[in-house]
Protein backbone atom coordinates (compact mmCIF):
# COMPACT_ATOMS: atom_id res chain seq x y z
CA UNK A 1 0.00 0.00 0.00
CA UNK A 2 1.24 3.49 -0.81
CA UNK A 3 1.49 6.09 1.90
CA UNK A 4 -0.82 9.10 1.91
CA UNK A 5 0.33 11.74 -0.58
CA UNK A 6 -1.13 14.06 -3.20
CA UNK A 7 -2.35 12.56 -6.45
CA UNK A 8 -1.22 13.52 -9.95
CA UNK A 9 -2.16 10.40 -11.89
CA UNK A 10 -4.62 9.76 -14.65
CA UNK A 11 -8.01 8.24 -13.92
CA UNK A 12 -10.21 9.42 -11.08
CA UNK A 13 -9.94 9.42 -7.33
CA UNK A 14 -12.71 7.49 -5.62
CA UNK A 15 -13.13 8.33 -1.94
CA UNK A 16 -15.12 6.11 0.43
CA UNK A 17 -15.74 7.79 3.74
CA UNK A 18 -15.86 5.27 6.60
CA UNK A 19 -17.07 2.29 4.51
CA UNK A 20 -18.66 -0.47 6.57
CA UNK A 21 -19.32 -3.48 4.31
CA UNK A 22 -16.26 -5.37 2.97
CA UNK A 23 -17.78 -6.66 -0.32
CA UNK A 24 -18.79 -3.11 -1.29
CA UNK A 25 -15.24 -1.86 -0.85
CA UNK A 26 -13.91 -4.94 -2.68
CA UNK A 27 -16.17 -4.22 -5.63
CA UNK A 28 -15.20 -0.56 -5.63
CA UNK A 29 -11.55 -1.65 -5.69
CA UNK A 30 -12.24 -3.64 -8.87
CA UNK A 31 -13.96 -0.63 -10.42
CA UNK A 32 -10.95 1.53 -9.59
CA UNK A 33 -8.55 -0.96 -11.11
CA UNK A 34 -10.71 -1.25 -14.24
CA UNK A 35 -10.68 2.52 -14.75
CA UNK A 36 -7.12 3.33 -13.70
CA UNK A 37 -8.46 5.16 -10.66
CA UNK A 38 -7.13 5.47 -7.13
CA UNK A 39 -9.19 4.24 -4.18
CA UNK A 40 -9.02 6.39 -1.05
CA UNK A 41 -10.43 4.94 2.19
CA UNK A 42 -11.15 7.36 5.02
CA UNK A 43 -10.98 5.71 8.45
CA UNK A 44 -12.45 4.32 10.61
CA UNK A 45 -13.29 1.34 8.41
CA UNK A 46 -15.99 -1.10 9.50
CA UNK A 47 -13.66 -4.04 8.70
CA UNK A 48 -10.05 -5.10 8.51
CA UNK A 49 -8.15 -4.71 5.23
CA UNK A 50 -7.33 -8.41 5.59
CA UNK A 51 -11.02 -9.33 5.54
CA UNK A 52 -11.66 -12.38 3.33
CA UNK A 53 -14.92 -10.96 1.99
CA UNK A 54 -13.14 -7.79 0.91
CA UNK A 55 -10.52 -9.77 -0.99
CA UNK A 56 -13.07 -12.15 -2.45
CA UNK A 57 -15.14 -9.27 -3.84
CA UNK A 58 -11.95 -7.70 -5.20
CA UNK A 59 -10.97 -11.14 -6.57
CA UNK A 60 -7.30 -11.68 -7.26
CA UNK A 61 -6.94 -8.04 -8.15
CA UNK A 62 -7.19 -6.53 -4.68
CA UNK A 63 -3.41 -6.37 -4.30
CA UNK A 64 -3.13 -4.34 -7.52
CA UNK A 65 -5.57 -1.63 -6.43
CA UNK A 66 -3.93 1.77 -6.00
CA UNK A 67 -5.09 2.19 -2.41
CA UNK A 68 -4.55 5.11 -0.05
CA UNK A 69 -5.64 5.20 3.57
CA UNK A 70 -6.44 8.41 5.45
CA UNK A 71 -7.23 9.08 9.07
CA UNK A 72 -9.79 11.77 8.20
CA UNK A 73 -11.29 13.48 5.17
CA UNK A 74 -9.64 16.73 6.26
CA UNK A 75 -6.24 15.02 6.07
CA UNK A 76 -6.98 13.81 2.54
CA UNK A 77 -8.15 17.26 1.42
CA UNK A 78 -5.15 19.04 2.90
CA UNK A 79 -2.74 16.74 1.09
CA UNK A 80 -4.12 17.69 -2.34
CA UNK A 81 -3.26 20.60 -4.58
CA UNK A 82 -5.50 23.66 -4.31
CA UNK A 83 -6.69 22.95 -7.83
CA UNK A 84 -8.09 19.53 -6.84
CA UNK A 85 -11.80 19.22 -7.60
CA UNK A 86 -14.21 17.31 -5.36
CA UNK A 87 -17.72 16.02 -6.13
CA UNK A 88 -19.92 14.70 -3.32
CA UNK A 89 -22.44 11.97 -4.11
CA UNK A 90 -25.66 12.17 -2.16
CA UNK A 91 -29.39 11.64 -2.44
CA UNK A 92 -29.84 15.02 -0.72
CA UNK A 93 -29.47 17.29 -3.73
CA UNK A 94 -31.33 17.68 -7.02
CA UNK A 95 -28.36 18.27 -9.37
CA UNK A 96 -27.92 15.14 -11.55
CA UNK A 97 -24.40 13.69 -11.79
CA UNK A 98 -24.51 13.77 -15.61
CA UNK A 99 -24.67 17.57 -15.58
CA UNK A 100 -21.24 17.70 -13.96
CA UNK A 101 -18.24 17.99 -16.31
CA UNK A 102 -15.80 15.50 -14.85
CA UNK A 103 -12.05 15.72 -15.45
CA UNK A 104 -9.38 13.07 -14.88
CA UNK A 105 -8.02 13.42 -11.37
CA UNK A 106 -11.34 14.60 -9.91
CA UNK A 107 -12.25 13.26 -6.48
CA UNK A 108 -15.60 11.46 -6.32
CA UNK A 109 -16.65 11.23 -2.67
CA UNK A 110 -19.14 8.64 -1.34
CA UNK A 111 -20.63 8.17 2.12
CA UNK A 112 -21.17 5.32 4.56
CA UNK A 113 -23.61 2.56 3.72
CA UNK A 114 -25.82 3.25 6.76
CA UNK A 115 -25.56 7.02 7.15
CA UNK A 116 -24.36 8.56 3.91
CA UNK A 117 -22.11 11.64 3.99
CA UNK A 118 -22.13 13.81 7.14
CA UNK A 119 -24.70 16.62 7.05
CA UNK A 120 -21.99 19.14 7.96
CA UNK A 121 -19.92 18.15 4.90
CA UNK A 122 -22.96 18.32 2.61
CA UNK A 123 -23.81 21.79 3.91
CA UNK A 124 -20.21 23.01 3.43
CA UNK A 125 -19.97 21.51 -0.06
CA UNK A 126 -23.50 22.18 -1.33
CA UNK A 127 -22.21 23.56 -4.66
CA UNK A 128 -20.29 20.37 -5.36
CA UNK A 129 -23.00 17.83 -4.50
CA UNK A 130 -24.52 15.67 -7.22
CA UNK A 131 -27.09 12.87 -7.22
CA UNK A 132 -28.05 9.83 -9.25
CA UNK A 133 -31.76 10.40 -9.91
CA UNK A 134 -34.00 7.54 -8.78
CA UNK A 135 -37.69 6.74 -9.32
CA UNK A 136 -38.10 5.08 -5.93
CA UNK A 137 -36.24 3.69 -2.93
CA UNK A 138 -34.04 5.63 -0.55
CA UNK A 139 -30.62 5.07 -2.10
CA UNK A 140 -28.50 2.76 -4.26
CA UNK A 141 -25.91 0.28 -3.11
CA UNK A 142 -22.58 2.03 -2.56
CA UNK A 143 -20.63 0.07 -5.20
CA UNK A 144 -23.46 0.53 -7.72
CA UNK A 145 -23.42 4.29 -7.14
CA UNK A 146 -19.63 4.37 -7.63
CA UNK A 147 -19.91 2.38 -10.88
CA UNK A 148 -22.52 4.72 -12.35
CA UNK A 149 -20.60 7.93 -11.65
CA UNK A 150 -17.12 6.59 -12.35
CA UNK A 151 -18.12 5.26 -15.76
CA UNK A 152 -19.92 8.50 -16.58
CA UNK A 153 -16.62 10.22 -15.83
CA UNK A 154 -14.86 7.77 -18.17
CA UNK A 155 -17.53 8.22 -20.85
CA UNK A 156 -17.04 11.98 -20.77
CA UNK A 157 -13.30 11.53 -21.49
CA UNK A 158 -13.91 9.23 -24.51
C1 LIG B 1 -26.21 3.21 0.74
S1 LIG B 1 -25.88 4.87 0.40
C2 LIG B 1 -26.21 5.71 1.94
C3 LIG B 1 -27.61 5.72 2.36
C4 LIG B 1 -27.89 6.66 3.51
N1 LIG B 1 -28.95 6.13 4.28
C5 LIG B 1 -28.24 8.05 2.99
O1 LIG B 1 -29.40 8.44 3.14
O2 LIG B 1 -27.38 8.75 2.46
C6 LIG B 1 -24.11 4.98 0.41
C7 LIG B 1 -23.56 6.08 -0.46
O3 LIG B 1 -23.82 5.75 -1.82
C8 LIG B 1 -24.00 6.94 -2.56
N2 LIG B 1 -25.34 6.91 -3.17
C9 LIG B 1 -26.26 5.93 -3.08
N3 LIG B 1 -27.35 6.23 -3.83
C10 LIG B 1 -27.10 7.43 -4.39
C11 LIG B 1 -27.82 8.29 -5.28
N4 LIG B 1 -29.03 7.99 -5.73
N5 LIG B 1 -27.24 9.46 -5.65
C12 LIG B 1 -26.00 9.78 -5.22
N6 LIG B 1 -25.28 9.03 -4.38
C13 LIG B 1 -25.80 7.86 -3.97
C14 LIG B 1 -23.84 8.11 -1.59
O4 LIG B 1 -22.52 8.59 -1.61
C15 LIG B 1 -24.15 7.45 -0.25
O5 LIG B 1 -23.56 8.16 0.80
What's a quick, concise take on this entry?
With 158 residues, the protein is α/β, with parallel strands linked by helices.
Top keywords for this entry?
158 residues, six-stranded parallel beta sheet, 5 helices, globular, disordered N terminus, binds S-adenosylmethionine
Care to describe what's here?
The structure is a single chain. α1 (22-35) packs parallel to α5. Helix content is 30%, strand content 16%. The longest helix is centred in the C-terminal third of the chain and has 16 residues, at 142-157. The protein is globular, with a radius of gyration of 14 Å. The protein is an alpha/beta fold. The model is unreliable at 1-9 (pLDDT under 50). The N and C termini lie far apart (30 Å). The chain has a six-stranded parallel sheet with strand order 3-2-1-5-4-6. The relative contact order is 0.21. It has helices at residues 22-35, 52-57, 73-78, 119-124, 142-157; strands at residues 13-17, 38-42, 66-70, 86-89, 107-110, 129-130. The protein contains five helices and six strands. Bound molecules: S-adenosylmethionine.
Strand order of the largest sheet: 3-2-1-5-4-6
Topology as a string of helices (H) and strands (E): EHEHEHEEHEH
Q: Specify Rg, calculated over alpha carbons.
A: 14 Å
Name the helicity range. 25-40%
Bound molecules: S-adenosylmethionine
Count of helical regions: 5
Name the structural class.
Answer: alpha/beta
How much is the average pLDDT?
Answer: 91
Measured by DSSP, the beta-strand proportion falls in 15-25%
Spatial shape: globular
Major sheet: 6 strands, parallel
Spans of at least 5 consecutive residues whose pLDDT stays below 50 are 1-9
DSSP, total strands = 6
